[in-house]
C-alpha cells in the first residue's frame, strides 16, 4: 500500500487525528501532511487511491484510503479506523488486544462512547487523559501556520506515547502467556520468575513474589485487602517496605519465600 500524502482537517486538532497520523509514522510510512477542509482538495484526494484522507471528507472506504467517521456515530474515531486497518504494521499480533485498549480509550473520548463524559464529570477538575493532553497542543485556531506547527509537535509527542504503549502491550502479552508458569505456595502466594503485569487482574492471589532490581519483592493485590506485615523487616537481606504496605523488597529469594509462607 503506497501513499505519499495524508490529508486531515485544519483548525483545531484532536487526539484521534493526531494519534492516527502518529500511528502511520510508527508503522514506517513516509508522507507529507496537509490540513484542510477545502472541498476541491478533498474531492480530488478522496478519489485518489494514493492519498490517505482521515477524519475529514465524510467517507469511509479503506480500499481508497478514506478514513472518516463523522458520517456514522457508531464508527470508531479516525485513530481506531487507522489502527484497525494497519495494526499488523503497528503492533505485534499477540500484543494487539492490549494495545487496542489504548486506542479504544482515544475512541471513547472522541465519540463520547457509552456516555464517557458523564464519568469524566465526576473526576477532579485537574484530571487529564491522553486525549486532553494532546488537545493541549492547540493554540490560536485562526493562525493556520501556527496550528500546523503545533500539530507536528503533537504528532511527535504522540509517537513517544505510542512507542510506550506498544512496549507495555508486548510486555503484558508475555506476562499473560507466562502466567500459568507461576509457582503457588501452599497458602496461595504466587511466585513469578519474571515480573508479571497481569497477576492482580486475575484476582487469584492476595500476595505475589516477583523479581526486583534489588532482589525480590512481595506485593499485595490491594492494601484494602491485605498489607505486607511490618515484620518483613526481620528477613535476612531486607531492603525496604513501602509505607503503605503494598510491597517490600528482600535481597535473598529464599528469605522472602520463607516469609511468604507465614502469611
Structural overview:
The protein has 263 residues and is α/β, with parallel strands linked by helices. It has two domains: 5-175, no CATH class; 182-260, no CATH class. It has nine helices and eleven strands. It has a six-stranded mixed beta sheet, covered by helices on one side. Strands 2-1-3-5-4 form a five-stranded mixed beta sheet, sandwiched between helices. It starts with a strand and ends with a helix. The mean pLDDT is 97.
Descriptive key words:
11 strands, five-stranded mixed beta sheet, six-stranded mixed beta sheet, 9 helices, alpha/beta, 263 residues, 2 domains
Strand order, sheet with most strands = 6-7-8-9-11-10
Structural class given helices, strands, pairing? alpha/beta
How far apart, in Å, are the first and last alpha carbons? 58 Å
Q: Beta fraction of the residues?
A: 15-25%
Task: Give the total of beta strands.
Answer: 11
Number of helices: 9
Order of secondary-structure elements:
EHEHEEEHHHHHEEHEEEEH
Largest sheet: 6 strands, mixed
Question: What is the mean pLDDT?
Answer: 97
Q: Tell me roughly what share of residues is in helical segments.
A: 40-55%
Radius of gyration: 24 Å
Low-pLDDT runs? none
Taken together, the total number of domains comes to: 2
Bulk shape: elongated
Characterize this entry briefly.
This protein is an alpha/beta fold. Helices cover 41% and strands 15% of the residues.
Amino acid at each position: 500500500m503506497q501513499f505519499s500524502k495524508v490529508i486531515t482537517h485544519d483548525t483545531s486538532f484532536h487526539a484521534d487525528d493526531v494519534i492516527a497520523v502518529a500511528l502511520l509514522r510508527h508503522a514506517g510510512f513516509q508522507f507529507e501532511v496537509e490540513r484542510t477542509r477545502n472541498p476541491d482538495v478533498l474531492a480530488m484526494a478522496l478519489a485518489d487511491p494514493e492519498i490517505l484522507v482521515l477524519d475529514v471528507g465524510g467517507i469511509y472506504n479503506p480500499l481508497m484510503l478514506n478514513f472518516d467517521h463523522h458520517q456514522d456515530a457508531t464508527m470508531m474515531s479516525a485513530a481506531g479506523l487507522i489502527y484497525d486497518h494497519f495494526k499488523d504494521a503497528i503492533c505485534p499480533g499477540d500484543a494487539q488486544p492490549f494495545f487496542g485498549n489504548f486506542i479504544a480509550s482515544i475512541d471513547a473520548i472522541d465519540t463520547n462512547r457509552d456516555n464517557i463524559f458523564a464519568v469524566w464529570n465526576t473526576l477532579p477538575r485537574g484530571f487529564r487523559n491522553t486525549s486532553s493532553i494532546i488537545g493541549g497542543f492547540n493554540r490560536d485556531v485562526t493562525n493556520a501556520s501556527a496550528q500546523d506547527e503545533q500539530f507536528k509537535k503533537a504528532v511527535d509527542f504522540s509517537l513517544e506515547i505510542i512507542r510506550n504503549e506498544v512496549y507495555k502491550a508486548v510486555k503484558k502479552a508475555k506476562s499473560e502467556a507466562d502466567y500459568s508458569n507461576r509457582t503457588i505456595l501452599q497458602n496461595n502466594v504466587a511466585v513469578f520468575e519474571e515480573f508479571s503485569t497481569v497477576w492482580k487482574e486475575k484476582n487469584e492471589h492476595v500476595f505475589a513474589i516477583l523479581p526486583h532490581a534489588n532482589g525480590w519483592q512481595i506485593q499485595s493485590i490491594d492494601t484494602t485487602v491485605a498489607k505486607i506485615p511490618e515484620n518483613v523487616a526481620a528477613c535476612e537481606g531486607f531492603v525496604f517496605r513501602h509505607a503503605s504496605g503494598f510491597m517490600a523488597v528482600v535481597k535473598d529469594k529464599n528469605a522472602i519465600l520463607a516469609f511468604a509462607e507465614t502469611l
